[in-house]
């Protein structure tokens, strides 16, 4: 078999797996995944049909495989197996206990279809991958309700939660129509339509004290999670901040700079210029006070004004103590 024939065979196998992953798969999605033309996709689909695969549908609408048709156990490549092992390690750090447990169960099934050679290789590197916790970031809560939320989203079930806001003082009971969840800045968030506020709201899942799933199914048509997140990005006002720091302290800044909107840095000898896009100058000012001994503000002036105000308040408190 020539190299081109082998490449096409691999693509045909992958397309067959992709067709089994969804009810309908568009030709454009296949073309984008494999970086081929639509004409090539049409030829590949025809080749699968000629091989006896029960595919039906139209190029303009999408393709489906007859329900009940299944491939024999899938053989994973070594690279795919390593990627899944890496994901398993990350699940322990970035998801809750329930999600990590379910992923481990899935991994047992995946390992079961690997050839002996791949099983041995996977076992050999398993202890060579670690995801260490950051001591400066709070430990993930054992139950973030991720699995239950995903089920209610799929079933369109109304839920009731107890929620504590960021000030740790305001507690409310909410009735929600869940839309989606996303991970950002070390936290999982739920996007839902809140019947108490009669509007869309975002809830940090680690602040949910209880979650009850009701028997009520909602039929309202809500925006997609992607459209909601894109809207948040557009509405969020970001301000550019440029500071210069002693190059010697870069190694101490760690990951915190990314939570503040870090964009890039230019090292020029002993001085490094760092650029941020921040959503809160107040928060950035507090951060800057920790490194202010080794840094200067280039812009904006409003950040300098906030720092001057904060330092005056500190001075007053020191004089009173």
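Sequence proposed for the structure above (321 residues):
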């Amino acid at each position: 078999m020539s190299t081109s024939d082998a490449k096409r065979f691999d693509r045909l196998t992958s397309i067959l797996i992709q067709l089994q992953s969804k009810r309908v798969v568009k030709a454009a999605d296949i073309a984008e995944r494999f970086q081929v033309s639509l004409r090539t996709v049409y030829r590949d689909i025809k080749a699968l049909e000629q091989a006896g695969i029960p595919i039906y549908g139209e190029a303009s609408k999408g393709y489906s495989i007859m329900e009940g048709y299944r491939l024999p156990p899938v053989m994973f490549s070594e690279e795919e197996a390593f990627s899944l092992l890496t994901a398993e390690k990350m699940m322990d750090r970035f998801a809750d206990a329930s999600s990590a447990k379910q992923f481990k169960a899935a991994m047992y099934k995946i390992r079961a279809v690997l050839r002996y050679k791949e099983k041995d290789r996977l076992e050999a590197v398993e202890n060579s991958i670690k995801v260490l916790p950051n001591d400066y970031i709070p430990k993930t809560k054992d139950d973030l309700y991720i699995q239950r939320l995903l089920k209610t989203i799929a079933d369109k079930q109304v839920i009731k939660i107890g929620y504590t806001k960021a000030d740790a003082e305001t507690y409310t009971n909410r009735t929600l129509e869940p839309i989606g969840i996303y991970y950002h800045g070390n936290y999982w968030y739920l996007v839902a339509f809140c019947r108490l506020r009669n509007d869309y709201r975002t809830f940090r899942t680690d602040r949910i004290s209880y979650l009850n799933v009701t028997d009520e199914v909602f039929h309202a048509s809500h925006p997609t999670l992607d459209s909601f997140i894109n809207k948040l990005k557009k509405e969020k006002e970001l301000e550019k901040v440029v500071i210069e720091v002693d190059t010697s302290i870069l190694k101490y800044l760690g990951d915190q700079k990314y939570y503040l909107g870090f964009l890039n840095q230019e090292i020029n000898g002993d001085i490094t210029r760092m650029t941020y896009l921040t959503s809160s100058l107040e928060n950035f000012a507090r951060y800057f006070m920790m490194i202010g001994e080794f840094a200067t503000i280039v812009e904006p002036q409003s950040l300098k004004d906030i720092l001057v105000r904060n330092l005056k308040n500190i001075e007053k408190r020191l004089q009173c103590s």
